[in-house]
Amino acid sequence: MRVLVTLEQITKLAPGVRDGYAEAFADGQRQLDDFGIAASRLRVAHFIAQLMHESGGLTKEYENLNYSARRLVQVWPWRFQPHGPLDPDDYAHNARKLANEVYGGRMGNTAPQDGYIYRGRGLLQLTGKGNYLAATERVRRCLPAGPDFAKEPDAVLAPQWCLAVAAGEWASRGCNQLADADDLEQITRRINGGTTGFAERQEWLRQARLVWD
């Protein structure tokens, strides 16, 4: 059964939704259909729960890299002193320098500024040049006019593309099948790389399941 996702339902969960995200959901059913998310209520609930967490209740566009020195040590303990080689004071409240350090040389980032250019963006905080290239291919399969996100990174945030980017990433990581199994932990690992914010994701899932019951 095809599950409908309406802007009214989204705003019930996220009353502070950004205008661009609201516009995306107002005209986004096709993307949810194309990537298999709308095939069941459980898939929709899990997908929306991850979006809500990653985007701060649909309020956040860019990854927040404005960390204090103390927080840097907590987030990247093996990169920053006392366990790692880097002095956290040199990177505190310097988003560009931090992104180029922690994301440089991986996830398809090769140029000196790639870490910052391809920092987390959008509904699922797409990160790394390799993932921006992959997003281009996935989106163009259902929306041939889609831009080259590696050349236009901020297009990931555009209302006409942001939901397709997130839905394509979700499907490519096998999250539809994990949602069928109601496996929140493994979905979180596929999206996040770990289990950061797991309790909050659980709460978002509880709320989403009430909406799409």
Q: What does this entry look like structurally?
A:
The protein is an all-alpha fold and 213 residues long. It folds into 2 domains: 7-61 and 157-211; 69-117, no CATH class. The chain is built from 12 helices and no strands. The protein has helices at 7-13, 19-26, 29-34, 41-54, 69-75, 95-103, 114-117, 129-142, 162-172, 175-180, 184-192, 198-211. Helix 4 (41-54) crosses helix 12 (198-211) and helix 8 packs across helix 9 (162-172). The chain is globular and about 55 Å long. The protein starts with 6 loop residues before the first helix and ends with a helix. 38% of the residues are buried. This is Lytic enzyme. InterPro entries: Cell_Wall_Dynamics_Protein, Lysozyme-like_dom_sf.
N-to-C series of helices and strands: HHHHHHHHHHHH
* Count of distinct strands: 0
* Contiguous runs where pLDDT drops below 50 for at least 5 residues: none
Structural class of the helix and strand makeup? mainly alpha
What is the beta-strand fraction?
A: under 5%
Q: Biggest sheet, open or closed, and with what strands and sense?
A: none
Q: How many domains make up the coordinates?
A: 2
Rg over CA atoms, rounded to whole Å, is 17 Å
Q: Report how far the terminal alpha carbons are from each other.
A: 13 Å
What form results from the Cα inertia axes?
Answer: globular
Q: On the 0-100 scale, what is the average pLDDT?
A: 96
Can you count the helices? Answer: 12
Helix content: 40-55%
